[in-house]
Amino acid sequence: MSDSIDVDEWRAELESKRAEKDDFFAEHPQSPVPPEDREEFEGLDYFDPDPTYRVTATVTAHDDPEVVLMDTTAGREMRYLRAVTLEFELDREDDDLEDGTFELAAYQLESPNEEPYFVPFRDKTTGQQTYEGGRYMELAADRDLETGDELVVDFNIAYTPFCAYSETFDCPLPPEENWLEVTIPAGERFE
Q1: What residues does each domain of the chain span?
Q2: Is the pLDDT reported for residue 124 higher than 70?
Q3: How do residues 69-111 score in pLDDT, each as one tens digit?
Q4: Which residue ranges have biased composition labelled Acidic residues (predicted)?
Q5: How confident is the model at residue 159 (pLDDT cuts 50, 70, 90)?
Q6: Are 137 and 121 in contact, with CB atoms under 8 Å apart?
Q7: 2, 64, 73, 111 — which has fewest CB within 10 A?
Q8: Residues whose CB falls within 8 Å of the CB of residue 97, separated by 6 or more in sequence, listed in order
């Protein structure tokens, strides 16, 4: 883990957010879990919190962001702007897992907004331990990012899109540039 944090505090905060999300899925009228399945819902499945997958990425900002059309689960296309590219290293002690430098594009909707950066991705867990349509992260920055800035990317917050639970949702699919050739056993599981 490249930035210094209190790991126990980080883990407690992550577990608290996971419990809140489980409550939302089980009880909230806007839960993606169909109403008839909520009584049996026992919580989402997660990988154990692992600070190894909380990395600091170096930002490359795109002054004239390119439009990226993302296919959706309902067969439509959604328009996003490739706002920044995030470059990060994974350095794991487990010899069976791949180390190295990786890149992910972070997107924003075309309309000007203060929304977090949207980072849809696939990795080697996709379709096996995680949802076949990929997972998402939303990364907030306290200002517009510039080339050379650093941003924490915590894969432990990676989540499964709502369309995994109900066909009433239409979700963008990660574009090929965000298909990581690495195993990221962090965040939400979905089997």
Answers
A1: 46-189
A2: yes
A3: 999 999 999 999 999 999 999 976 665 556 789 999 999 988 7
A4: 37-46
A5: very high
A6: yes
A7: 64
A8: 90, 182, 183
17: tokens are 């957010």
Take residue 161 and report the two structure tokens written for it: 């899109």
d(CA 114, CA 112) in angstroms, rounded, equals 7
Amino acid at 89: E
Q: Residue 133: how many CA atoms within 13 Å on its side-chain side?
A: 21
Residue with tokens 């957010």: 17
Averaged pLDDT, 166-171: 94
**153 and 121 Cβ atoms separated by less than 8 Å:** no
Best CA proximity match to 58, nearest among 135, 2, 134: 2
pTM: 0.93
82 DSSP assignment = E
* Pairwise CA distance, residues 72 & 32, whole Å: 17
